[in-house]
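hi! just following up on the protien thing from before. the input was this:
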Amino acid sequence: MADRDEVAAGSDRAAVAERAARAGARVAYDRFRTGIPVEAKGEDDVVTEADRAAQRTVIDAIRETYPDDAVVGEEEAERKTVPEEGPAWVIDPIDGTHNYVRDIRIWATAVAAVVDGEPVTAANVCPALGDVYTADTDGAYRNGDPITVSDVSDPRRAAVAPTIWWEFDARDEYARACEAIVTRFADMRRFGAAQVVLPTVAAGGLEATITNIRPNPWDTVAGVFMVRQAGGRVTDLDGNRWRHDSTGLVASNGALHDEALAAAREIEDLD
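and the predicted 3d structure came back as:
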């Protein structure tokens, strides 16, 4: 098993994560709003040449420094599961492709470094929004400035987002998620890009985000690390510490976590 201190020591992985995310984001942004062809990956999922080109750019940037590390990526033939031992990278070239192909600015290029299955640094670059979110062992940042979760503890002042899209035949679950949020909290937002939503929780723009499904690691690992490093809490549907293979995801400012967890559990009527 890799020695965590040895693998994560120094700022090299943080620097590589940010550099790789910025490089991939530039590739994606250069093609944004250019009428790029859209391909269907499945009934409810799409992909573009920009996704593939950005992913190749991210991987190339990582392998300049870490040629032997495993890479977990959404597109093409990269592995799809996070290894439990050793160093690896979890990447999403364009999180929010549905927004991207509709010319909506809410999307991100996400890169996280993990060791023995746990994130140690992350960078989410949102070029169309002008924001770069990063996190390391010392904290979380937006455009270089430290960020923290909000201190809102009154649900009547809180904004919460449902995230990680439900399949078309599970829209009843989406409806229950929305009902659970609007009956508990002041407001609801849906961004359509989890790797933008999670940093927004980290920065205090949202008090929580919830889903009952098992999300892909490339949609979540980087942003989850940011929430935690900003002082928030992230669990599964049982209230246990969230992992890359957990079912459900509840990320909050901590003060409202019990309420957010109850909302997420209501989607499947677990209480």
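Residues 6-10 have pLDDT under 50 and may be disordered.
The longest strand covers residues 87-95.
cheers
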